[in-house]
Design brief:
Elements lengths: L2 H20 L2 H6 L1 E5 L5 E6 H9 L3 E13 L4 E10 L7 H7 L4 H7 L13 E4 L14 E4 L1 H7 L4 H4 L13 H14 L1
Parallel strand pairs: 1-4
Antiparallel strand pairs: 1-2, 3-4, 5-6
Helix pairs in contact: 1-3
Organism: Luteimicrobium xylanilyticum
Protein name: HNH nuclease domain-containing protein
InterPro entries: HNH_5 (IPR029471), HNH_nuc (IPR003615), NA-targeting_endonuclease (IPR052892)
Amino acid sequence: MTRSTAARATTTHALAAAARHLGGADRLVRSSTLLLNASYEVLCFVETPRALTLLVNEQVDVVQAAPDRFVHSRHLTLPWPTIVALRHYVLVPYDVQATTETASRSQVLARDKHTCAYCGGRGTTIDHVVPQSRGGLNTWTNLVACCAPCNNRKADRTPEEAGMRLLFEPHPPRDASALQRMVWDLIGQG
């Protein structure tokens, strides 16, 4: 048995044991672990079984584990990871993700704090900067919060064609900044 095959088998046994201990696989899959790049930049949340697999395959290091919580197998005991960091840096093309990742109405309104991107009033609808009829997508860089009068005025045109100016540029949410501060604080304590 090769090392990677043995590691996968060990992971499978560890996950099965954890599922039994925690009251079923559903609970194990529902939990998540914060994944950091090697530079400790926040990447995303992954399901805990995925984090455990990365840990067994020596692709991540545990930054923070749940106290008094472990995954046991016959030959291995692993900490329950709440934050893990990749051992090797992965380049993430941020701009590509921002222009391809879809955004929902509620996410856009929350990002823009319900502020109309054209007049600064209360934004209750969303607007496609590049209209859908012209290929505009439901992405973070193409959606803005908008009030109903501005949305009707702009209609199926670009802001330039409608004689309207964006007060701010649409961007992906910056939710990760709070998580990133937490990570830097954690590193400072360690």
